[in-house]
Structure formats: C-alpha cells, structure tokens
Amino acid sequence: MKKYARLAGLLIVLTLSVGMLSTAINILGDIKRLDLDEDKPGPAVQMMNPGSLGKSDEVMEVGGSEPRKLGPIMEIRLATDTSYLRRMPAENYTSGTWFPKTSDDHIPFEDALLQDQYDEHNVIAFRQFYVTPLTNFKDNFPVAPNTLGISFNGSLVYSPELRSFSSPEFFQEPYWVSHVLLRESSGALVTAEPLGSEAMLQVPTRIKSQLRGLAEDITQGIESPYLQLRAIETHVNENYEFSEEFAPAPITVDPVSWFLFNDRRGVGTHFNSAVVLLARSIGIPCRAVIGYLIDPYSEVQYVMSQQVYLYVEAEFEDMGWITFDAAPRPTMEGDVDITPEQTFTNITGNDPVALKGKTFNVWGTVTNINGTPVSGPQVEIMLKANKTDPHETPLIVGVGFAEEGLFNVTCDAPTDLDVGDYNLIAHTLENRWYLESFSDPPIIVMAETTVKITGPRKVYSGKNITYRGVIVDASNGEPVSNITLNVEVLGKYQALVSNKDGRVSYETLFPENGDFNVTLEMPGTRFYVASAASYAVTVIPAPPSANKLFMLIFGFPNNIIIALGVAVGVGVFAARRNRRLKEEDFTAPRVTLAPQKEVIGWEDGVPLNYNSYEEGVVKLFNRFYVSMNRIYPDIDETMTPREFEYLLMDRLPDNSHAALEDLITSYEIAMYSNIPITIEDFKRTNATIELIIELMKNGQ
Description:
The chain is an alpha+beta fold. The chain folds into five domains: about 1-35 and about 545-570, no CATH class; about 60-65 and about 70-325, no CATH class; about 345-445, Macroglobulin (MG2) domain (Immunoglobulin-like); about 450-540, Immunoglobulin-like (Sandwich); about 595-700, no CATH class. The protein is about 25% helix and about 30% strand. The protein is built from twelve helices and 36 strands. Strands 2, 4, 5, 13, 16, 18 and 19 form a seven-stranded antiparallel beta sheet that branches. Strands 21, 23, 24, 26, 27 and 28 form a six-stranded mixed beta sheet that branches. A hairpin with an 8-residue loop joins strand 35 and strand 36 (about 530-540). The radius of gyration is 40 Å and the shape is elongated. About 30% of the residues are buried.
C-alpha cells in the first residue's frame, strides 16, 4: 500500500513539474524567437581640421600643386613692414623637392630679446605684430625674417642655426613677434664674404655643370659674391615668365633645369629655387626658406594656406642674413605717403540658408566713393547673432579677396554652431590703400536631422509593445531636444516631444497578425530640416499563457491521459530499479563523481550545458532574464533584450549600466551575428552577470 501511495505522490510531483517546465520553455523560447534591430545612430562625420602648420617633416616641391584652400590659417594684426613670414630654412634639394633643415642646437627661449644678433648701427626700425593661429600650430612659428623674440604663453625654444622659434606641442594661443628692419649697406655688402656650410653648396650632380655655365655667363666680370647673387636674382626675374600655366617637367628632367632651359615659365618656387642652385653652382652658399608671402602694410589680414612661399637667404660676414627674391612680385617695402580711400562693401547675394557642416556662398562688390571697383583688400565673412552686441565675438567662416570690385567667398558652417537667425557680415579689411567697410544682411543657420526607431521587429498580437525613437543633428550626432515628432501606426497619428536626449517612446498594440510599419517623422521647423524613418514590424499569434497551459494539462481528458502515461513510465522505472538493486552487491558506499565537463558560468544552482560558446552566452543571458523576472514581475515575456535593458536601467545602480550594456551586446552578437564567440567572451559575459548581481546586492 505504501508503494502505491509513494507512486501517487510521485505522479503528482511529475505532473506539476511538466506544467512549470512548459511555462519556462515558453518564456525562454520567446526571447530567442524575437528578432532585434537596435541600431543606434552613429557619430556624424566631423569636418576635417585644416591640420598642423608646423610639421617638422614638411617639404616644398618645385612647381608643386597649390595647397588646398581650407580657409584662413592665421590672423595678423598691425602692419608687419615685411612681405615675408619665415618658418624654416631648407638646404637639401633632391629631385625637385626642398627638405627642411634640422638642428640640435635648440635653447630655451624665455621672452629675452636676441639683442646680440643684430648690429645696432644696421637697425632702421623696431616693429611688432600680433599673430592669432586659426588652426593647430606645431614646431616652427611663423615669424619675421629678422626676429628678435616672441612673447608666447607656453614652452618655446630657439635655434640660432635655423633662426627659428619652435614649440614641441600643438597650440592655438596668440603670440607677439618683435623684429627689426635692417639697413642693407651696399658698400659693405660688396666687400663682404659669404658664409655657409657645405650643405649650402650642394647641387645635384646631373645638372651642376649646366647650371654653372649659365651662372658664369650671368656673373661674367662681377667679382663680388653679393653682386653676383643680385645679378642672378635680376636675370631670373627679368628673363622668365611668372605663370601658373607652366608645363610640368618630364619625370626624367629636373624641374629647375626644365624651367631655366626649356619651358621658361613657372611660379615662385621655380624662380627662387633657380637662384639658390645657380648661386651654389659658382660657390656662393645660400639656402631656401619656407614661409608665407603677406601684405606688409595691412593693419589686419588673414593668411591663407595657399600663401605658402619659398624665398632665398644668404649670410655675409658682419652683415647677417640677406633676403633675395627673384619672383616678379612687388614687395613694396618701405614708407610711402599714401592716403587710404574709403570703401563701400555690399553683399549682393548669398545662399539664404547655411546648413551646419556644409558650405555656403556669399558674393558682392567693393567700390570706392566714386563707385570705382576696388582690387586687393581681403574680405572676411563672419556670422554674428546680435550685430549690436559689442561683447559678442563674430565667428569667421570664410575669407576671400576683392578683385576688380567683386568678391565670391565659399564659407564653412561649423558643426558646433547653434542654429538660429544670424547677421551675415562682409568686412573689407583695411590695408595700405583702402579703409574698411561692412555689409550685414540676415541669414538662417539650419541643421539637417536624422530620425531613428528602435524596438522589436517581430511581436505578438494583442501585446503592448514600446517603440523608441531618437532625433539627432546630422552634422555632429548631437541630440535635438524639445522638438515635435509625429508617430504613425495603423493609420493613427500621435505627436511626441523629444526629451533632453532627443528621445521619445510610444506604446502600441497590434490587434491582428500581418506586416505593418511604424513611421516616425520630424516635419521640419524654421531651423531644422525635415526627416523621417519607417520601421517594418511582423505580428505573429501570441503563445498560450501559463494559465491556459495549466488548464490544458489538468483539463479533462488530457489530465487522465498524462496521468496514465506518467504512471506507466514511473511503474516501469521503479520495477527496473528494484531489480537492479537486488542484483548489486555493495562493498563500499556510493561516491558522487565530479562532472567530466568543467562547469563555467553563473550557475543559479544548476550546471550549465552548452555545445558552443555562442549557445553558452545565450543561455547565460536567458537565465539572467528569468532571474530578473522573478525580482521584477512587470518584465513581460515578449520584451526584447533592449526593452529589458531600458527597464532595468531605472532600477539598477548607475555604475552597473555599462555592464548591462555589455551583456546585452554580447547576447545580440551571439544570437544574431556571424561573429565567433570565444571562451574569453563567454567568461566575460559570465563575469558581467556576476558583477551586476553583486552591485544589486550591495546597492552600489
């Protein structure tokens, strides 16, 4: 009788276990069946930084392509009284390329002027100007040819050999340049001996004899090295054509040789490279200098990347370094009594909208008081939110030049610019001949937007589903807050307002099976361009609930069939067990053997079996999901992992959010991607779950 009672009890336990197991299978099965699409908006492509000016390995190609026009690279205030900004000397000429000279003789420079560098009897005047970098500088500072010192808030070194000031770190801080204008005494220079190293006499072997022949013809009858250099400078200046339409040298011909003996057309690098190599060929040491060509008389000017320039310098005993420039460009240094004319600037047209992260165009005219077209002055284009606010600093977005009374400037709208109404200011800068003037029509700065939807792709009918959306600025990926978005599902519309993170959420229910779309639209505003996103959803029949499954198991006649089947199975098992026990003769107590397979993972009291690490990660996540469902009953069995994550984010400690994100990502990779999962990935997932549980226990 006791055997039958035990059998009945076992039957009841097994029946209840079948019901619980079926319910658990439904819950876990739901997680694995649902497709996910949780693509988050990636970072926007940033605008390219113009980059560093002062790379120590920068080279200068003879007749090379003009540097890309990336806008102004520095602003100079106060007249420089020199046409040149000097960066670094270049002594090594190889195959048409000048390579900067390097030196180890750098000494710390701490705002002490280099008074001993120049003979006070040769100094005409002392000058200062102010340089504001508009991009990252590094290494060599742009300075004047005869600089006494730099006033700069940062580390600074000086090289007497290179006559260059440099900083080992990137910087954008402004600095003062102090320099002198020297008197070139022709009488003293005529008798002065040139100075220089062997490197300043090098000429490529294959063109040396050809260059020497021309140089000797040019300097025939001239004994003074200084006058020989001036004769070479004059000959190149007067006998060759300055033209950007020059024919490039064949690959087998040196560019300087091609310029001198074939095409006879070129730009500044051709002219001054020819001077250096011709002088060297007859034993006069000199070197090229890489810098910029500027306006010596403008009180305010912007230096563009395309103003990079190559000129010549040679050192003479007791006279210092003397500048030579054979390119047919007027330098016009010196004091001339000129009364500047008043100008009138007028923006005649511009793109009505400036889109962040993109370019826009501004064009107009510059004339004098008589309406005569003006040529030469720079025109800067600026944006200012309130043109009457003296404390607001205008943002420079482009710089051009007035030529024959016209300017046309392509401007950049930065990605970090706020949207809104602005004044577009065209400012003609004052120079030696013209006074400044302004024009300031309005312009709107707008941003393109990107809308995204996240949520389950496959859902059950009759279940409440939450979809989330986000709207970001397409130029930089920043969220757009407090803006109205319209969501459309099943022909119904609802207006939502984005929060500070640019997010909205929408709960919906699909009453029947089929394929549907969830559409999220930003209709466009005064400052934001419209955008929309559509999300395809497949609705499938919902599985039976646990209550229905319980009724199915215990309802008539299924309960009788299941009970009989289980009773027969239990009876057969018991009979075989009794027979085996009678046949066995135990001589020692039973020993429980350790499992052959190493059990790794968050156990929850039950060994975890898996055939691959992908399966192991999925099972770890499913266990964690069920465990959280026990703690938080409102976790719905139809939730996607991302919905599960969003719900837990509000309930777990803040320092567990990163771990939770890592867990969800690991599950998605294991479940939906072709990326192989390694044992390290599996162990990390296990450790992540243990960390989350520990943080929950401690409430940290």
